[in-house]
């Protein structure tokens, strides 16, 4: 059985909700990632902040990235899947939620992330096309 762990990129980095967006952007640059899960002060995942979020929702709106926190930008919760879950469950969860990344957790702690790029590399062309069709379909 292929699991979420088989699809994920390991070593997910998180950013505290209290961290500023400019620092989050630096972390993305340093770790060569486009998204960081956001952790609240109690250690729970509260959302995800993406490079696109920083540009579109903050910078393009004239906001100062040194004064806005990751927690302020990354509202709405975060989608997760257990590392041992069947890969098809992770793909289905991403498709149904129309999201391009999902955090993989083990014992409640983030251990990786499955991104659209991971799916493109690891799914069959047909399975990836089905995923993409669902995620990018008009609402």
Chain-wise SSE layout:
Elements: H1 4-7, E1 9-10, E2 15-16, H2 21-31, E3 35-39, E4 45-50, H3 51-58, H4 70-73, E5 80-82, H5 87-97, E6 101-106, E7 109-115, H6 116-122, H7 125-136
Parallel strand pairs: 2-3, 5-6
Antiparallel strand pairs: 1-7, 3-4, 6-7
Helix pairs in contact: 5-7
Summarize the structure in words:
With 139 residues, the protein is of the alpha/beta class. The protein has a single domain, classed as CBS-domain (Roll). The chain has 7 helices and 7 strands, in the order αββαββααβαββαα. The strands form 2 sheets. It has a 4-stranded mixed β-sheet.
Characteristic key phrases:
139 residues; alpha/beta; four-stranded mixed sheet; 41% helix
Q: Helix- and strand-based class?
A: alpha/beta
- In CATH terms, what is the architecture? Roll
Helix-strand string: HEEHEEHHEHEEHH
The tally of domains stands at 1
Unreliable runs, pLDDT <50, ≥5 residues? none
Q: What is the CATH third-level topology name?
A: CBS-domain
Major beta sheet summary: 4 strands, mixed
Number of helices: 7
Q: Mind telling me the CATH superfamily name?
A: CBS-domain
Oligomer description: single chain
Instruction: Give the % helix.
Output: 40-55%
Gross geometry = globular
Strand-residue proportion: 15-25%
By DSSP, the count of extended strands is 7
The order of strands across the largest sheet is 1-7-6-5
Alpha-carbon distance between the two ends: 33 Å
Mean pLDDT: 93
Under CATH at level 1, the class stands as: Alpha Beta
Provide a brief overview of the structure.
The protein is of the alpha/beta class and 139 residues long. It has helices spanning 4-7, 21-31, 51-58, 70-73, 87-97, 116-122, 125-136; strands at residues 9-10, 15-16, 35-39, 45-50, 80-82, 101-106, 109-115.
């Amino acid at each position: 059985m292929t699991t979420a762990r088989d699809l994920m990129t390991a070593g997910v980095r998180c950013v505290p909700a209290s961290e500023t967006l400019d620092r989050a952007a630096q972390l993305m640059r340093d770790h060569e990632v486009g998204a960081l899960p956001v952790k609240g002060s109690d250690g729970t995942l509260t959302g995800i902040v993406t490079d696109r979020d920083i540009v579109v929702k903050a910078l393009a709106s004239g906001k100062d990235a040194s004064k806005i926190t990751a927690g302020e930008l990354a509202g709405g919760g975060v989608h997760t899947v257990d590392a041992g879950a069947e890969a098809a469950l992770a793909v289905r969860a991403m498709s149904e939620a129309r999201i391009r990344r999902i955090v993989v957790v083990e014992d409640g702690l983030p251990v990786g992330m499955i991104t659209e790029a991971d799916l493109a590399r690891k799914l069959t062309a047909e399975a990836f096309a089905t995923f993409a069709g669902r995620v990018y379909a008009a609402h």
